[in-house]
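Give me the fold.
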Amino acid sequence: MNPTARTATPAPARRRSANRVPFLVYALLGVMVLVSVFPLYWMFVVSTTDSATATSLPPHVLPGDNFLHLAGLVFDTVPFVQALINSVVIATAVGVGQAVLCALAGFAFAKLSFPGRNTLFLIVVLTMTVPIQLAIIPQYLIMSKLGWVDTLQAVTVPGLLNAFGIFWMRQHIGNTIDEELMHAARVDGATTWQIFWRIAFPLVRPAAFVLGLFGFVYAWNDFLWPFIVLKSPERYTVQIAIKALQANRDIDLGLAMSGSFLATLPLLVLFVFVGRRLVQGIMEGAFKG
């Protein structure tokens, strides 16, 4: 018998070792899920109680029975239904716009040759280093010149395109669309627009869907720019409506959390229906990138 030969691991020991790793993984994932979900649960608990209960020690961890009353106050205090409609319109337009326009710009940077392409793409990437707050004043002046102040398009149009989306789609299209495929399409007489819309965009649709969903969520949660450019209550978004629930100095935590929970519900419903497609799009982009 060779003295250097290793002793074979018994089968039961191998099975125990194989089962231990998934258990630790699932335990870690369970802890991460609890940590992620607890703020949402606490928001719901506070939205069913009042400010005194929310700040009491020890804190209450069970929901109360005051949610319907506070939700009614939310709808009575601010035009919350109209704010929800405005947010849906703005976020949908931003999501669809980013999915299509960023894919179009990414296709141009990845597959088309034109003077200054690399320089322009470098400028686009460098704009991601500029804080968004620095663009608020010139952006407001532009909206004022266009006469768009206190209109929904003032919130929608600036979000239709962004540097990260262009970079995302450029990288994805560059790694997905083969040059031979484009040459074959040109031989068949296809124009550049036809190549993009009929060949390139269907192939990168999962990545565009993920980008559009990110744009939807960002537009839904955006507060600073809508707060500056929107003045009329009938044009408020949900985030501005939640701010309007608060008095100048006094904050009713129960009322504010009730409004916040109502504003979060549409996003939760959205992720229930598109969560699987979101994960598939991210994983496909990760493996192809």
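The first helix runs from residue 11 to 47.
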